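Dear U.,

For the methods section draft, I wanted the exact inputs and outputs in one place so we can describe them consistently. I've listed the two proteins in the order they'll appear in the manuscript figures. Please don't edit the token lines directly; just add comments below if something needs changing.

First protein:
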Amino acid sequence: MKTATTPKNNYERIIKYCMLIAIYCLSLNGAFAQSVLHITNSDTYACTALANYDKIIVENGAVFQPGTCAITTKELVVHGKLRSGTGKITCETLTIDGGEWESLSAKTITVKYDCRIVNAVIGGAGTPEFAIGGNVVFEGNTTLNESAFTVTGNMEIRGTVDLQSRTGVKRVMGNVLISGFLKHSVGENIEIYGNVTCSGTIENGNYMLLGSNKALYGTMMAITRLDVEGSYTNHGTVEVKETFAGAGTFIQAENALLITHAPAEPAHLIASATGNTVRFMRNGNVTISCSEFYNMECSTTYNLNKTFPVFSLAQNTTILGSLSFTRKCFLNLQNFVLTFPQWNETLIRAVDTAGIIFNSGSIQINEIPSQQSVRIPLYHSNKFQDYAHAKLTNNNEATTNFLLTQLSDYVFVNSEMGSALPFVPVMYEITSQSNNSTLSLYWHNQRETPVFDRNNCRMVFLNDNTWEAFSEKSQAQKGVKDIYYISADYADNASGFTFGITSESFLPVGLTYFTATRLNGQNVLVWETASEHNCDYFVLLKSVDGLHFSPCARIDGTGTSNFAHTYSFHDKEQITCATYYQLAQYDYDGAVWKSKIVSTPAFDSSTTATLIRKSSTQCVLQTPHDEHCFVNDESGRIIDTFQSNTLYNFSHLTPGIYFINAEHSKIVNNRLIVR
């Protein structure tokens, strides 16, 4: 049975509920109430026993010194000055806005979450230590004097931060973002475990990169010291002024730029990405340990002493792109191999008094295209007077490879040669796959011996301690300043030899020409000397393959003479294949000089030609196939050439007896009488 509810009971019940709600609201109000400590006085606010507050605000002009207390607060805002004394401060968030903080006993302030520092001065007596569990943001102008910090999150610099102490560890476990200005007045050390992105400015400072598979973005210029202990990839521009070291890995991304003034680089520098450049820029000497570059640039800062630094290889090195010398400096190969696997138009570029010191080691350049050249700026030392460039032009339709294995400053013939001989002491040892190239050798005039005559010189090559002519005598061409050069066509028979430059007076004989022609089924060899010096005799060497020669005749020389002399020899042996000849001259002291190789084409004795005289000044040589024809005088010397099966006009010949010879065919009666 239900009990009736009276109005009085309902009223009491409502009052009771309202009281409960009021009590609950009061309890809620007490729970959310925030205790705030405002420190506003201009004098020092010190305490030894301070109750904990939710928020502590140090107003501008006030000084707060907790003394020996351990202060815990959710939020600490400093506009004035904070002295932590011997105590410790723990807060969830910290804002230093226009304030100043110093720690008299190097104790720690711990920020559980984020920290914002604006226009602050931190440090002074003692070394404040920050432990920031979240991120830290610097805005405005902030100076960190004697201080240390560890940031678990990211560090972002939007304004200007000036680090002015060498004490204490600065460590950032997260990323570093710089859109403002990070200034290191006295070389602060910063340890970084994350990525670095710099769209602002960095000045000086020491950085240690400790992260794994991290990256650098933007521009980091004028870093004093960079230690790479982790693995970092540079995607922008990094400049290291003094020390670049570490056991980690520094990787250049595509089109990245690394500028180093340091004497060495980290243990593992990887710089093979397309388009990236490593620029070595130092007034002193540098050791280069990296084994592969895309673009390598050697440069230096201006120095009043005018000393030219030398960068030295520490191992075999490959350059995939280009090698540049933008200022006066040198790269020493140090017995190592410098390889360019792919030719390009900017393969090697150098200003004056800059290039490769090449007393040892080798240079390999591959895939030089048809009709293209490569010029190597070579030097014996870091002096312009030791200039010794070499240039190769590929005249083939196919690509070719080029190997330079030695550049020496001695000369010898039959093992020795003195400075009194007319030579340029610049020796090149060159190998080329091309059989149709042009070789040019350069030298400074101060490298010439006193009796060298640059108006009458030629290129020679050394074959078994015997210098052999590689080009006809000519006048050296004038280059820039005091540089001269000569050029000659490159042939297979000279590939792999040492090349040099000598004047005609060095040779025991001044050879005007040396020819080999077919004359009625026989080979006729004719040569002329413009002068002879101690010329004992000539030996005519013969070969059917152009490689293996044997003597076929000996002809006495004239001794010493300043007049022209003509020599000839008829090789009566009937040989139908191509035949090669070389002239060896012996002087009275036993020294030997060899000429260039000449040859006659293959001869088919079954093919005959007929010489038909058309008039007193015209004739025609009829052959089964068109051939190259020669006009020889009675000594065998070639006077003129023409094509068979075409009318030949010989009205320009002086009266006398001549002989017409075909390149392949045998002529029954080849005598031509001119009246």
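Second protein (the one for the lower panel):
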Amino acid sequence: MRKNILYPIILIVFTLGLYGCSCSQSVKNPSNTPGLYLDQLSVVEGNNGRATVTLRVTLERENTSDVTVNYAVSAIDPEGRLAEDVADFAVVGADSSDPEVDVIAKTGSVTFSGGSTVVQADIELIGDTFYEHDEKFLVTLSGASGGVRIIEGSAEVAIANDDPVPVVEMTVSSTNLSEVFSGLGTLASASVLSTGGNSADITLTLDKASRVDAVMRLSGQGTADFLIDYFLLQNAQPLYEVSSIIIPAGETTATVTVDAVDDGLVEGELVEGEESFLLTLVSVEDVTNGANAKPLAFTLADNDSGAVKRSLVNDTGLTEVFVPLVDSPLVDEVDAKLGLDKALSSASKIGGGQAGFDYTKYDENGEVVAVGSAAAECVKDNISGLVWEVKTADEGQRSSIHNYYWYDPNILTNGGVSGQKGNSVCEVSPLDSQANSCNTAHYAAVINQTKLCGMTGWRLPTIEELRSLINYSAPPPVTSHNMSPVAYDASYFFGSVSAFYWSSTTDAGNLTRARTLRFLSPGFEESRSKDSDSFAGIRLVNDSLLSVP
């Protein structure tokens, strides 16, 4: 029995000798003074202007004598901090009348006396009724008396917002839209000009101003396609699927314009001549929807009848007789002896061009560009009446180096296969960069929205319309590496002759493919897949000036 008692006693003595921590601690900190710290890291803002609030400073335990500590209120140094953090730093200043000031700068002291372990430090805030994010300022403790330790020398204190999030309401000028042709200058005659009806304004209104931006989005659904049949604009700039509608801090309203696209195409998958879409307001950040922010239902009337417009056909461009036929009795019946290539002289042309082709250049405002001038934004074919987009040599929106996916959401024109949408935004992309390629329908919508040459109604051409530009008199390349001979008049059109250009024509033998044409003499055609990673260039056409027979 005695032996069993001795074993625990020996173990305890051994443990105390090996882990004598209490003795060691008393040597390191013989005074064993308490520490103090700021243990309240938030205050409520309030709504009544300048007001005093308190911050709690705590002493770990009672001290044998009074303890005094200094404190200072200051702004947080933004150096090295993230921009989103700096945006929520409180403004600290001395002038309470300054509307930007959130906290009054101050220095002072507090004293722990009579064995107290908690004291209150007075802080002056400038309260308001504006919604804002919680803001932070800096409180620094220093100079504690009696050898008391300051556990944390400084702390960021948050001013908790106590004002409700703004409520947004939505009104609209009209929900009935229509495609409307517009034109400028001498290119568009007065007989085809029309205005009005193609846009509506949505007004977003907050119930009160805010100290932060209110961020929203409009989400569209329906038979009309966003970024193809209509655009949303704020401050005249397009909003894309990733874009936000912003009511800036301090303001209460924003206007978004719904802009219908006159695309030159027959619409109406469900109702002949009419499409529809629903716009729903989504509150993203620092705003909430009100009772009147209900979805808006729009109708979009088509201005294209579907009737075939009158367009004359260009000649082939052949002006020389093939040698073996020179002495033939049928020589006067060959192509070179007939048609516009034979009959149309330079003097009788409206503009200029090779053989029987007759073209006129126009600038961005639809005004005629002098014959021989290199500058042109579009070209009118005076024979067919079609107006063509001119590609550019730079890397801008209409650069000849850009490529696109074939996409047509309209079941009346897509042959039952809509194609590949790709990127929803036509970015400036490198040659053959599929990752940044948008689609043919959106590109046409962008050009219509910006009114190239002052006109709307731009669309993807049919394969027959593309063919009408070919001058078959141009010699074919000697080898596959000799790409210099072009199949169109290069003095009027610019673009890579080795690139294929999309048409709107679906391949009749395979509805999953669309026809393309390359303007390398004498003109090469091939079908490309609508749904795979096939892509090609675009040269838009406009038939708005043609009449219906």
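Candidate sentences for the figure legend, describing the second protein: The mean pLDDT is 80. The first strand starts at residue 35 and ends at 38.

Thanks,
Y.
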